[in-house]
Amino acid sequence: MNKEQLSQSTSLYANTGYGPHFSVLDIGLSDKVAVVEPDMAFWALTDKDAIQEALSGSLVEDYCKQTEDFQEEMEHLRFGLTPSAVYFNPTELCNFNCTYCYLPEDMRRDGKTMTEDELCDALARLSDYFGKTMTNGAKPQIIFHGSEPMIAKTPMFAGIEKFEDKFLFGVQTNATLLDEEAISFLTAHNVGIGISLDGPSPEIGDNARKNWDGTGAFDSVTRALDRLSGYPAFNVITTVTSANVHTLPQMVDFYHNHGVNVVMFNPVRVTREGGQQLKPDNKAMTKYFCQALDRTYELYEKTGQKLVVANFANVLAAITGPTGRRLMCDISPCGGGRCFFAVSTQGDVFPCSEFIGFPEFKGGNLYQDNLDTVLKSQPFKDVTTRKVEDFQPCADCAIRHFCGAPCPAEVKAFSGNLNAPSPYCEFYEEQVRYAFRVIAHGREDAYMWDGWQEETELTFNWA
């Protein structure tokens, strides 16, 4: 065999140093495993007794024929995207003092609220920026975020009215200030609405989510939930802590009974001490999260009504087709500074809202600096160049591009540096295993948002 022939043939074989390096992932089924090529987030399901045949047969050969396409897709997803969304804090104030909040308490108690002129000036500057970077006719997103954005209702609503032809707007709120007038305005302007609720009862739901006097608002939040349940652009976030993790299966029934279609069961960010103290054990998080997913399927089978757990659906979408994901936390580098950025009430610009409590991650100021320069600043580069390939154990992990070792802000707070695995590493691993079991059983549609197939392009099919 001459040198040219050697080069051609060795590119077809796995784990030889020349070709792709496949890992075999036990997904918890008696008969099947996932074969994963981590660099490209490529995978295939195979029978356990046929692994050797799969890794020496047509799977590897066919994969190698499409390696260039896979590489181009992953390269674009990881390094080719530009910002299309902004998390915008119109006020630093909050009427709640949630135990696990990632923003400093003094900011939430005594902070600033934007005037109408300041807010509209900021939106005008953002509109000018996106007018130059988004030329395909798509509208960028502005998500009014917290602290509690409804405290800035007057300037915020003025901004929505003035710029609704320029942006798609959303608001994430604790729902305590969502009176009928506010709901009517937001729904009339097609503003996305996300609210927060942490339990199926006041005893659980008000445990960590309470105002400065220590009083929760479960009943008023539930009323807002019922009022919004039929609104298409509505979702609920449940922050999962050690105090409520055991209620996740009951929360599925609660949301199902209240007509909620989309929920996020987000593990509490351990960015600050309050969140660290309430972090659920990874085994408990896995157990009850998976039980909750089981329950969504049972209810879907029984009633035909979906409850999409969006953070899991995003992982499932990332596996079925990497570019089909809607959230950019579980890819490396994450979306912070690449797909979105955050603007504080002062106009300071950060890679993500989670970094607003870290002054060293301020990249510049919207009112004073050129946004292109801000997005290329060192604080932004520190986040946008954070890659799982650069640290252990993530560098050798089979599912590193289905997980991404998020969130950099909480990793920084928890580990002292950005280049470390997530404190929820074991949970994310088991979430991926669950997703592969869903795929093995052909149940993807029960867990995904309607129309997801149209958003996912089949690039490889091996059987």
Offer a few descriptive terms.
single chain; 463 residues; 3-stranded antiparallel β-sheet; alpha/beta; disordered C terminus
Count of DSSP-assigned helices: 21
Q: Shape, please?
A: globular
Radius of gyration using CA atoms only? 23 Å
What is the helix content? 40-55%
Oligomeric form: single chain
- Which stretches of 5+ consecutive residues score pLDDT under 50? 1-14, 456-463
Helix and strand content put the structural class at: alpha/beta
Mean pLDDT, as a whole number? 90
Q: Strand order, main sheet: write it out.
A: 10-9-8-7-6-5-4-11-12-13
Q: Biggest β-sheet, characterized?
A: 10 strands, mixed
Number of strands: 13
Separation, N- and C-terminal Cα atoms: 32 Å
Name the beta content range.
5-15%
Structure notes:
- This protein is an alpha/beta fold and 463 residues long.
- It contains 21 helices and 13 strands.
- The chain is globular and about 65 Å long.
Briefly say what this structure is.
The protein is of the alpha/beta class and 463 residues long. The protein contains 21 helices and 13 strands.
Helices, strands, pairings?
Elements: H1 3-10, E1 23-26, E2 32-37, E3 42-47, H2 51-56, H3 58-65, H4 67-80, E4 85-88, H5 105-110, H6 116-133, E5 141-144, H7 153-163, E6 168-173, H8 180-188, E7 192-196, H9 202-205, H10 218-228, E8 234-240, H11 248-257, E9 262-267, H12 273-277, H13 282-303, E10 308-309, H14 310-320, E11 340-343, E12 348-350, E13 364-365, H15 371-375, H16 378-384, H17 400-403, H18 408-415, H19 425-440, H20 444-447, H21 452-455
